[in-house]
Write a sequence for this structure.
């Protein structure tokens, strides 16, 4: 009876989401108030659209990422949180299609709705399938595929959500169209890349040291590899080869050249002569030089010039603090402790400054600067707002990683220098490594039977969250 109820409710939810996806594709916004040559009407954003923005921000930006982490640690709260997020996403969908006030021309935000809703449908459908515990015969083989697919889609959702939030912002203001599209892409892609780099550094700082040890590579190997690849792309895409060199082409292209040149050096220096992983300062130097180049980037508006300068200074600070961290705080070690569970307070600076530099660059497009300049907004107020947003995202990422680390490792997982050792490592080391590996299976609590658990994942108090029989 219980499984039948779950199946019927899950099927109804999936059917409802499918209906919304079809309606999202077929829906047409009214555009009778939009002047010719414009992408939005002059009407203000009404209260319904503001509620739509807040509800979707809560569902997609807070609840779904939190539910993702709860799934990784196999928490009983995973399913309730994800269900609440899904319900709010449905409510937000209706609000987004029922607002009055400002009208929008055909835009990327609305066109992206069917894609993101389809991902949500797939995620919910896989979750319902796993909840039914169909394990015999062919269902067992299908289940293994669904478990992996559920994890992949779940981890893809924050990235897709970020893109949709950006699309929503530029659509609401009518930005990034026509001649402004190219510079918008440059600002949002590179700014988002800096933020993503900061998030990755935060993950590696707080919970990724054991993974780095298993990989047999230093962190700078991966950093330098991405820098070199990105440099190659920028070298051949920032200028239309065969045509005349125009505004800032040479500076952007030379920046791409130094990235791949320095990236190759960083890859080479990431190993010692006997093949052991080795820290190096090349990625930090590249960040520093990139910040220097951006701080001197010529702009047309005084406000834009100041914001770009502060962006460059922030990025330079990220590079300098990264160099200090490796050379003087860690002294070429991977972490302050064996498992990286107790980082130095200084180590939080480089990733945070990358968050801040990313938001500063994303907020410095031509149209944004023109809008703020016309409204007589000072650069001080604007920069402080962008730093505030950076602090909030940095806080949220740290909270999610804390939630993961405390429940996946447990408070007893820290190495004890006076504890008996086995094979030269603390007795708790093998258990910690196993727990982290177990926790890499995504979103399984409440979606799998206890017989499927790979091993005990302990809670903060040391009690098992999932037992193996």
């Amino acid at each position: 009876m219980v499984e039948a109820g779950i199946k019927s409710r899950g099927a109804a939810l999936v059917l409802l989401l499918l209906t919304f996806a079809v309606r999202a594709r077929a829906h047409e916004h009214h555009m009778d108030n939009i002047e010719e040559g414009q992408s939005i009407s002059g009407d203000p954003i009404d209260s319904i659209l503001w509620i739509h923005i807040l509800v979707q921000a809560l569902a997609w930006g807070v609840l779904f990422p939190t539910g993702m982490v709860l799934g990784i640690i196999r928490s009983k709260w995973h399913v309730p949180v994800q269900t609440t997020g899904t319900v709010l996403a449905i409510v937000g969908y209706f609000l987004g299609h029922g607002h009055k006030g400002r009208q929008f021309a055909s835009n990327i935000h609305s066109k992206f709705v069917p894609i993101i809703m389809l991902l949500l449908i797939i995620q919910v459908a896989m979750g319902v399938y796993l909840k039914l515990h169909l394990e015999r015969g062919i269902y067992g083989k299908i289940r293994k595929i669904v478990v992996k697919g559920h994890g992949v889609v779940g981890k893809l959702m924050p990235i897709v959500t970020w893109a949709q939030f950006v699309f929503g912002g530029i659509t609401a203001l009518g930005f990034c169209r026509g001649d402004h599209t190219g510079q918008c892409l440059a600002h949002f892609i590179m700014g988002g890349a800096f933020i993503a780099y900061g998030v990755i550094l935060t993950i590696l700082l707080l919970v990724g040291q054991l993974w780095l040890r298993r990989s047999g590579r230093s962190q700078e190997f991966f950093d330098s590899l991405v820098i070199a690849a990105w440099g190659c792309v920028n070298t051949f895409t920032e200028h239309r080869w065969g045509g005349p060199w125009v505004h800032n082409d040479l500076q952007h292209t030379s920046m791409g050249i130094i990235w791949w040149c320095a990236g190759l050096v960083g890859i080479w220096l990431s190993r010692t002569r006997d093949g052991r992983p080795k820290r190096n300062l090349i990625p930090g130097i590249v960040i520093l030089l990139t910040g220097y180049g951006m701080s001197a980037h010529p702009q047309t508006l005084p406000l834009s010039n100041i914001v770009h300068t502060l962006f460059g200074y922030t990025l330079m600070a990220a590079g300098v603090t990264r160099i200090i961290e490796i050379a003087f705080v860690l002294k070429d070690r991977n972490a302050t402790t064996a498992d990286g569970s107790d980082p130095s307070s200084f180590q939080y600076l480089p990733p945070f400054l990358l968050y801040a530099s990313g938001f500063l660059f994303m907020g410095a497009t031509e149209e944004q600067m023109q809008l703020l300049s016309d409204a007589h907004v000072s650069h001080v107020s604007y920069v402080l707002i962008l730093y505030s947003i950076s602090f909030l995202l940095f806080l949220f990422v740290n909270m999610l990683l804390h939630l993961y680390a405390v429940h996946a490792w447990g408070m007893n997982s820290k190495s004890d220098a006076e504890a008996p050792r086995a094979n030269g490592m603390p007795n708790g080391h093998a258990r910690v490594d196993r727990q982290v590996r177990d926790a890499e299976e995504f979103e399984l609590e409440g979606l799998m039977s206890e017989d499927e658990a790979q091993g005990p994942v302990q809670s903060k108090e040391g009690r098992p969250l999932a037992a193996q029989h």
